[in-house]
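Protocol step 4 of 5: obtain the predicted structure for the target chain.
Materials: sequence only (see below). No template structures provided, no constraints applied. The aim of this step is simply to have a reference model before the mutagenesis design in step 5. Sequence pasted as it appears in the construct record:
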Amino acid sequence: MKLFGENKEKFRDKNSLIIYFSRADENYFGGSLKFIDKGNTEVIAEYIKDFIGADMFKVEPLVEYSSDYMECIEEAKVRTKNHNAPIKENIPDISSYDVIYVGSPVYWGGMPEELFTALIGLDYSNKIIRPFVTHEGSGLSGIPAQLKEICKGAKIESGISIKGSTVNSVKGKVEKWI
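Step 4 output (structure tokens):
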């Protein structure tokens, strides 16, 4: 039988990087729209950093999404359909990292296209990928499968999904997952 603490220490002792995409502004929260100053996925990324001291890299779109939620989801739909989402800055060298935490909201059943742009073409040999996802009912959606497709050579570990409307009250849940 594998004890929870074994996994916890195994991941805490590794050199880790958090790569994430997050959007503030108007967001959907269980049936209504609400303006937020910090994206939900960024809140979870900061929790992970607090627990393990990992380095962080925020993937940012070259062309910002609209602050209006309904416009944003239409923009995301077009970017996903066209596979066109340039980013401001490429991810730095990942060769020194053992574990990579990949954080994403769910856009149209998967990752925002900007994460594809950022993650494609990196060397994932002998890396462990741990996905974390924020959503309002989609769970992990298709994101683990997308990561398996993109991150060739990596071991994709079990992820965690967090309802965006609960991010400010789930720090303990994130710590248990770590």
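Step 4 remarks: The chain has a mean pLDDT of 92. Helices lie at 4-12, 40-52, 69-82, 113-119, 143-150, 171-177.
Proceed to step 5.
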